[in-house]
Specification:
The chain is of the alpha/beta class and about 110 residues long. The chain has a single domain, classed as Immunoglobulin-like (Sandwich). The chain is about 15% helix and about 35% strand. The protein has one helix and eight strands, in the order αββββββββ. The strands form two sheets. The chain has a four-stranded mixed beta sheet with strand order 2-1-4-6, with no helix packed on it. The protein has a four-stranded mixed beta sheet with strand order 3-8-7-5, with no helix packed on it. A hairpin with a 2-residue loop joins strand 1 and strand 2. It is globular and about 35 Å long. It starts with a helix and ends with a strand.
Length: about 110
């Protein structure tokens, strides 16, 4: 016999299981991080699903920027040590980016539809 607390929880558990089985709401995209250090973006290439927020963190002693190339989709201010810049990628595609202060620093985000 089910305990009274389990009997009270059973309808909610059933609803959650049913929603998952019939394609309930998709879980939120996992955040992704790119670290700026030693004049590089790491990882240099990152693949994420649409809806993902990517955060760049400057772990370098020198200011850096994060600027989208041809797409012009995003542009950060100059980031000092430990400062962050985030952008949410809502459209599939390849987003090449660079540091406008040090143009040899390049990276790319590949956004794939689920």
């Amino acid at each position: 016999m089910l305990s009274s607390s389990l009997r009270r929880a059973a309808p909610a558990l059933f609803a959650i299981s049913a929603a998952a089985a019939i394609g309930g709401p998709a879980p939120a995209a996992t955040p992704a991080t790119v670290t700026i250090g030693n004049f590089t973006f790491g990882p240099a290439a990152l693949t994420v699903p649409t809806g993902t927020t990517v955060t760049w963190i400057n772990a370098d002693d020198t200011p850096h920027t994060v600027v989208a190339g041809e797409t012009h989709a995003f542009r950060s201010k100059a980031l000092d040590t430990d400062e962050r810049f985030s952008f949410t990628f809502n459209r599939p595609g390849t987003y090449a980016y660079f540091c406008s202060l040090h143009p040899h620093m390049i990276g790319k985000i590949v956004v794939k539809a689920p």
